[in-house]
Amino acid sequence: MDCGPRENVVCSESINGGRDVWSSKDSASSADHLVVMANGILGRSKDWKFAAEQFARMLPDKVIVHCSERNESKMTLDGVDVMGERLVEEVVEVIKRKPHVRKISFIAHSMGGLVARYAIGRLYRPPKTEPVEGARCEDSRGTIYGLEAMNFITVATPHLGSRGNKQVPFLFGVSAFEKAACLIIHWIFGRTGRHLFLTDFEEGKPPLLQRMVDDWGDLYFMSALRAFKRRVAYSNVGYDHIVGWRTSSIRRDRELPKWEDSLNEKYPHIVYEEYSEAKDGEQPISVEDKGSDMLEEIVRGLSRVTWEKVDVSFHSSRQRNAAHSIIQVKDHFMHSEGEDVIQHMIDHFLT
Fold first, then answer.
1. Nearest-5° angle of CA 82, CA 88, CA 92?
2. Residue 47 has what DSSP assignment?
3. What one-character DSSP code corresponds to residue 274?
4. Which pLDDT belongs to residue 16?
């Protein structure tokens, strides 16, 4: 077990393929809210080090943070589903190890957001059909492995995948490059690449991201997402060369807002905030219809639940071309300008 200097009052311990971070203050013993943090493609659990310590430091009597280590480096190329199953096993182990936890939240960066969405689909427990004396009120709306679902937060996550115009900005919006990427991406990023570019037509099934806009068999993707009290999507409006603004903010091109420089001294890089109401009338097109527009279907499916959309810009930063990492504060020495984004998460976090 590692504990920082006394004034930092943050401890961490690596256990069974994951790292727990908590406050060493006496009041921390009352913390009953598990916060699971997941890294992105080719990432590592330490990518969340700064954010995890800030959460533990600022919410000492509320949260215990767990930085997932089951999907790191090359293991992130195995596919969203395989990684999701690994995360499920890890979360279950943590919950069993900490029987006092009553609430759960997820915070995930980049592709980790898709992995977390898959995992909660497996961890979801439907509401009890009959009232049970002494049961918690949240049981009436379903739980995540018996825990009250609180915050589901994604940071620069390609919810709509990486297929389509300007979904991957470093392809410069050139149609020929984007079409070629669909054909060769699996050579570079394995099954994960197929999932991101929606080319995984396995066993006659639609692509995984298309299936994840509804409940599918024993995977309650949308029921689980709906169980959380809030869903939040943090997105870079520009200079993110890995994940485009549209796919990370779950919007169509025409829905992308006009933004201006922030005048908020506390959150100088938050340039636009929107509360997106659930559009229950927008029923997704049947996933059996392979001729439908897959991206449109995913937007419509995910829009059936409310989202808080927080748009971020580092256009004035010297390191702006590293926006995909700055928004997470992946390395505090290099990416400290993203501190206000982490502070924004903490300030609005339901505990």
1. 155
2. G
3. E
4. 72
Q: How confident is the model at residue 172 (pLDDT cuts 50, 70, 90)?
A: very low
Rounded Cα distance between 52 and 22, Å, is 8
DSSP bridge partners of 275: 308
Residue of 102, 109, 164 whose CA lies nearest to 138: 102
The residues facing 149 across adjacent strands are 104
Contacts (Cβ under 8 Å, ≥6 apart) of 283: 300, 304
**pLDDT tens-digit map of 284-317:** 445 443 434 889 999 999 999 999 999 999 999 9
Query: What is the rounded distance in angstroms from the CA atom of residue 332 to the CA atom of residue 30?
Result: 29
Compute the mean pLDDT over every residue in the chain, rounded to the nearest whole number: 88
Give long-range contacts, CB 8 A cutoff, 24+ apart: 21-24.
21/52, 21/53, 21/55, 21/56, 21/64, 21/65, 21/66, 21/67, 22/56, 22/60, 22/63, 22/64, 22/65, 23/56, 23/57, 23/60, 23/61
The two structure tokens encoding residue 23: 């406050």
pLDDT digits (tens, 9 = 90+) for 200-220: 887 788 999 999 999 999 999
